[in-house]
Amino acid sequence: MLKLKRILYKIIVWFFGLSIFFVVFFKFVPVPFTPLMGIRIIENKLDKKPIYFEHNWEPIENISMNLQKAVIASEDGTFLHHHGFDFSAMQQAFRNNANGKRIKGGSTISQQTAKNVFLWQGRSYFRKALEAYFTVLIELIWGKERIMEVYLNSIEMGDGIYGAHAATQYWYNKDASSLTKMQAAGIAAILPNPRKFKASNSTAFINRRKERIVRVMRHIGTINY
pTM for the full model? Predict the structure, then answer.
């Protein structure tokens, strides 16, 4: 029993040590690869589908402010003001889940970033607890601007497309710094399912989402991280 306690103690110490180390490390170093990127490659390989992978890190100063506003408008309207969690959105998601409705809006950009960089996809309570832990860490250690920078460089924005640079090249054949409001809204509009929807030549459903996102963007104002 004593030996087991020692083993558990060492595991806990190593977990906290390594997790804090990597959060501090990625505060300064670009995130080269995420668990989701690896999972998608394995899924395509198992399904015998072509493996396409494009990911290039772009500093936040080279990413259009329109895209930064678009993801806030689409994914997390209180991003600049919360401390990692939007409890009102979480309560609404819980109520929707209890009523059997489609869940949306429960996770903040901070939570999505923590999940994408450090964890795997899933809905277990264990993974959600780890997500909350890493969310607190990145909020404390990275701050809002770094969270946004990592988010816009790491999330899936198409089938095998990760980050703003690859997405703007793929969807619009241009640089991430020169996105118009509607183009930025196009990328933000497909984030719920970027492998199903298209940012350009979109369906009527995505076009309506784009228009709504642009309307919200007008009210965001200047972003001060």
Answer: 0.91
